[in-house]
Amino acid sequence: MAEAEAPSVKDDFIRSVIRDDLASGRTQTVVTRFPPEPNGYLHIGHAKSICLNFGVAGEFGGRCNLRFDDTNPAKEEQAFIDGIQEDVRWLGFDWGRNLHYASDYFEQLYLWAEHLILAGDAYVCDLSADDMRLYRGTLTEPGRESPGRVRPVGENLDLFRRMRAGEFPEGALTLRARIDMASGNMNLRDPALYRIKHAVHPRTGDAWKIYPTYDYAHGQSDAIEGVTHSLCTLEFADHRPLYEWLLARLPAPAAPRQYEFARLNLTHTVLSKRVLTRLVAEGHVDGWDDPRMPTIRGLRRRGVPAAALKDFIGRLAIARSDSTVEMAMLDHSVREYLNEHAERRMAVLRPLKVTIRNWPEGKVEMLEAQNHPGRPELGTRMVPFSGALWIEQDDFMEDPPKKFFRLGPGREVRLRFAYFITCEAVVKDASGKAVELICAYDPLTRGGDSPDGRKVKGTIHWVSAAHAVQADALLLEPLFLSESPAAATGDPLDDLNSASVEQLAGCQLEPALADATADAPVQFERMGYFVRDNRGGPGFIRTIGLRDGWAKAQAKA
Ligand code: ATP
Ligand code: MG
Asked: Which of 289, 290, 318, 394 is disulfide-compatible with 12, CB 3.0–4.6 A?
């Protein structure tokens, strides 16, 4: 299922087309665009398109426009327009002065529609939406012609102008291209070019009573912007003949060529704005930036660095057939990046009290701790040690099996960066649960080495109780249970994992973590990579655990 790793010098069918076009002089300057509809926030699938469009423009000395295809005011919001820009910038791409909106071209698109009417290539249709669907036919049966198809040009022009003037109620009339109701390509069966909508548009307000359809606006917007290579996902291949039909009939300044590549599909999640919108609207998640969401802002809040996301995208094939990529491959890129870049800290998520019986009353010692085991240049920090500590509940067992190398009655472990301790007694509550360990430390083992060569098998992390910072921690599991969430019932929401969040309160963190920021994940030693929640509050979110199943599987293969 995983796609092959791409070579480090990027090469794929799109880059090879562009290289040829530049060599032959067909293209002078490469112009691409990323064209989101502002009806939701971006997901990781969009990141693939962003990296491709901005990537090739950069590699070939061209430019990439950010263009909002804002043709459907009913579903679009300024918040999405702003959020999409923030997300693209966060990914590290810059459109400079090349920010555009299809709505900037509404007047031009309107004039071109009149041009089509005058040439007999478009007509006003009075079929209702339902009838239009009926008349459209099916894949096996041709469609039927709308009665409006034979309307004289003058009447079409008059009606279209009155549609613009707001004389008709919503849905009463449409403007359609006159192409071929028997075409094997459904997109060519007289597609709608304009619809009447009495909606307020985020940018044009109530200036327009008619709006171009996506298919009419999209190709023409590319042409107006002089886009040379219009890159989109495979589902638009069937729309290409329509775009070409329109361009051939319009006095457009340029003729972009469209190339389709496979969209990104990921296991254990859904990359569809429609489904993501439902997750938010129905309250299954805590907003578009919920850290379980496959949105850019969700991944960002979860602590996934932009560089790790781009590394993952860079490993994907730009191919012409659909495939599904394993989530584990994304996880691998995240782990690999964080392993190298995240500083190490100590944090106890489920605390168990340890009292060092022979530690001098009131003494506090500052111990030096490495920030990164593989990168000495990241330096060290001083961690306070005292006679009252927290350790992880899981690092103690009352009756441990042989292979358990952590603490148990009478057993000795190393406290990371500190001392060897031996557990001498266990204090229990009324239910028999261990609530405190009484331990002895060996003063000769400072720094974690024994001068007599005595070995301990386990090293555990700890936090000094008097110095600890308290925090909550969110541990996350995938939002969906199965690999392909829509497979069983067709509705991915039937596959929601009801136990995808575990919230831990009262975690005990070493003092340096008071300074942790929302854009620099850290490794809680032995517990995973965590980042401070960018929504504020005392919370940390686990970006990802430490175990890399994907790397292991790759090594075996
Ligand atoms: P969705 O399919 O999630 O509803 P969309 O395609 O309607 O999204 P747009 O805002 O129209 O969302 O997408 C902008 C661009 O991103 C388009 O060019 C589209 O082809 C591309 N894109 C969307 N989803 C993916 C994906 N999963 N992988 C790669 N590119 C994608
Ligand atoms: Mg779309």
From this structure: 318
